Amino acid sequence: MPKPNKAELLIYKALKKAITEKLLYLYLDADKINRPNSPIYNPWENLLPLLIPTIIGLFLIIYQGIFYGLAVIIGMLLIYLLGIKQLIGKLLLHRAKKYILQNFEQCQRLWNFGGIVLAAASNKKVACISPENDWKEYIVQNFAYLMTEPQETKKATKDEKSAA
Please, which residues have CB within 8 angstroms of residue 30's CB and are 6 or more apart in sequence? Predict the structure, then answer.
């Protein structure tokens, strides 16, 4: 991946600022992003919630009888569907935000993988879907006011030019 230019870094800073100030919401398509080769995929989050009830149920089938074992398996799978799956979604969203906010390259890598939707808090109907849309263009159109450099940096560059 080529090194980002100054304009791309300004756009990325605007993205970071918009996410941290909750001006921009990040949504995930779990079916697309929660799979192998995804930068934020964790296989244990997908395996353990299904493996543990199955193993416990098999032990109960062997030692207590088929009724108890199947009842535990069915009960735990209902708990998985009604609660644990949503918890995994929240963990995945948190991991995606953390990954995107690390640096430009990671943000671009996750965007190219797909499964991310950016939506402005002011208008959630207009969204940017990865990888079909360009997140940089979306940020420029909706958050251009966040792309300004701090005044100290501008003053410092003027002082450096006048000293030279």
Answer: 88, 89, 92, 115
